[in-house]
């Protein structure tokens, strides 16, 4: 099968944000997402509410947007509509990279053949996928640009993961990781760091092998942290934990949007797009998952290092003219706010230190989601 990349003439964006239902008293996950979707009127004709892997989860999928502000508007209206319906059901919305208390063995998979096939194949490891993420699509002109841009994005993958990290606990125990979700998800056979393809032809050859061997028929697709979405003509960045506030979603979306456009502009200028060896990408992901915004990341093939906050500030300055052109200056500036406030995993640990109870952390995160459309004033 040929993998035809449709291409996008403009660097449009689309956002997918995964939210879950919880009991307002116990904080436990509740598997009534299908009922929630049925009860919630869509606030925008371009928005979709999709069932996800677990039947406690609904995914908000925006339409094709020109910039982060447009996506934010759709996400904000959608979250408000879902929140209203959830409260009428006696439930609350919650999200993070992983749930800090619920035992994965108590949760059911959505009634979709595709998801049941994944469980059948992956067994115990697949049943552990009690995780939620943020996915951002950015339009790219043609397939020849896809893997060079993905190579560039992988050099910034630690930044995106570190500042979205929001999954420190698992079954009421602090894992010591900022993003336990990242460690869990890469257990699946098609998930994790993308291979370092240089050309579209190499990727097509790889995918042909996956189809011939039956991998894709078992899993539906390759679940790389960053991957091409051929049918949309986009690069899909999937490495982020699900942030608990909409302003964090906006910050990360703007950063990813600018990053794709920046690396694309290097191609237009005939300049080399930065790329790291596969093993450095693997190490960088582990460091970001473990240390979050305190990560010392590898920055080039000569194994030079820099702290993730220094890399963030460097690229925020590079992205400034791009953000102006895209109309996302305000949202990109929120990345600096996020660096000061610190990511969700830090705030969750602070809430646990205050209450000594991970259930209280769930309640804290529910409140963050309900009230977190605007970044704090610092």
Summarize the structure.
49% of the residues lie in helices and 15% in strands. It is α+β, with helices and mostly antiparallel strands and 378 residues long. Its EC number is 6.3.2.2.
Main sheet attributes: strand count, strand direction, barrel closure: 7 strands, antiparallel
Corresponding CATH architecture: 2-Layer Sandwich
Mean pLDDT: 93
Secondary structure class reads: alpha+beta
**What letter string, H or E per element, gives the SSE order?**
EHEEHEHEHEEHEHHEEEHHEEHHHH
Q: What is the end-to-end distance?
A: 53 Å
Protein name: Putative glutamate--cysteine ligase 2
Family: Belongs to the glutamate--cysteine ligase type 2 family. YbdK subfamily.
Organism: Corynebacterium aquilae DSM 44791
Catalytic activity: L-cysteine + L-glutamate + ATP = gamma-L-glutamyl-L-cysteine + ADP + phosphate + H(+)
């Amino acid at each position: 099968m040929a993998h035809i990349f449709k291409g996008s003439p403009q660097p449009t964006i689309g956002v997918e944000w995964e939210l879950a239902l919880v009991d307002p008293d116990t904080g436990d996950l509740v598997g009534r997402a299908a009922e929630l979707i049925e009860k919630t009127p869509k606030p925008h004709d371009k928005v979709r509410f999709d069932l996800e892997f677990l039947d406690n989860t609904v995914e908000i999928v925006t339409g094709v947007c020109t910039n982060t502000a447009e996506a934010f508007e759709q996400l904000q209206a959608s979250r408000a509509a879902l929140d209203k319906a959830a409260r009428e059901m006696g439930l609350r919305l919650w999200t993070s990279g992983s749930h800090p208390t619920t035992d994965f063995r108590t949760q059911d998979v959505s009634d979709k053949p595709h998801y049941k096939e994944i469980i059948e194949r992956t067994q115990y490891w697949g049943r552990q996928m009690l995780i939620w993420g943020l996915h951002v699509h950015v339009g790219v002109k043609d397939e020849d640009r896809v893997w060079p841009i993905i190579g560039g994005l992988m050099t910034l993958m630690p930044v995106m993961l570190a500042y979205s990290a929001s999954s420190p606990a698992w079954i009421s125990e602090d894992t010591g990781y900022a993003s336990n979700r990242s460690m869990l998800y890469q257990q699946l056979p098609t998930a994790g760091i993308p291979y370092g393809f240089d050309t579209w032809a190499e990727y097509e050859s790889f995918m042909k092998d996956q189809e011939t061997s039956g991998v894709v028929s078992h899993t539906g697709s390759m679940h790389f942290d960053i991957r091409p979405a051929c049918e949309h003509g986009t690069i899909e960045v999937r490495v982020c934990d699900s942030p608990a506030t909409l302003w964090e979603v906006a910050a990360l979306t703007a950063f990813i949007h600018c990053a794709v456009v920046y690396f694309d502009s290097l191609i237009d200028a005939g300049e080399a797009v930065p790329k790291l060896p596969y093993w450095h990408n693997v190490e960088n992901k582990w460091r970001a998952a473990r240390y979050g915004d305190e990560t010392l990341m590898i920055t080039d093939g000569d194994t030079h290092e820099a702290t993730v906050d220094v890399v963030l500030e460097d690229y925020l300055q590079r992205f400034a003219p791009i953000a102006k052109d895209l109309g996302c200056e305000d949202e990109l500036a929120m990345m600096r706010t996020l660096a000061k406030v610190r990511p969700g995993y830090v705030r969750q640990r602070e809430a646990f230190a205050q209450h000594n109870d991970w259930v209280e952390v769930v309640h804290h995160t529910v409140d963050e989601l309900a009230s977190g459309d605007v970044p704090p004033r610092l």
